[in-house]
Amino acid sequence: xxxxxxxxxxxxxxxxxxxxxxxxxxxxxxxxxxxxxxxxxxxxxxxxxxxxxxxxxxxxxxxxxxxxxxxxxxxxxxxxxxxxxxxxxxxxxxxxxxxxxxxxxxxxxxxxxxxxxxxxxxxxxxxxxxxxxxxxxxxxxxxxxxxxxxxxxxxxxxxxxxxxxxxxxxxxxxxxxxxxxxxxxxxxxxxxxxxxxxxxxxxxxxxxxxxxxxxxxxxxxxxxxxxxxxxx
Length: 232
What we know:
Distance between the termini: 24 Å
Strand content: 15-25%
Structural class: alpha+beta
Shape: globular
Order of helices and strands: HHHHHEEHHHEEHHEEEHE
Oligomer: single chain
Strand order of the largest sheet: 3-8-4-5-6-7
């Protein structure tokens, strides 16, 4: 895949998409994109849950998006090429902003997701480029999720839930599901469960996983978290 061509599409045709559609389209396209990343079924009810909105409101917006050529749906929702471009632009802005807020402005993780959701709708290509230069052109957000239209190289990863006990792994990614809950993401940051940290699994029970991060004290995480933190 030629990332330079993809980036040109993002900066050219993508900017026109941004200017032509209402903000509600941005959030719904991004929600569908994140649901697909997380492996969650692409239903209107799931989009509604993700956005904290009513199914009636989501159905109305999705219908308008379909009429605008951004969404196809039969049994499942699917972004068209234009819809996927729009979603990637918003996700790109969000993840760049997350890095900037956490690494340059030193905001705690529990505030980063909410603040980034405000910035992603107004970030210009000029500001985006300046932020990337300050950050050193990263290919992932601070939680390890790929920045669309970057030179991200996919790694082979597995969930903490599935690793062999007593082995040590490197944390690579925290999924969007966990990012959205401020209490959970604060817990992960406070326990140094961040990309780049080393994690050792002591044992895995029916309800919790006992782990140690960077050879420090052992503590437990539930299986919901263990399914959504990826290591290599």
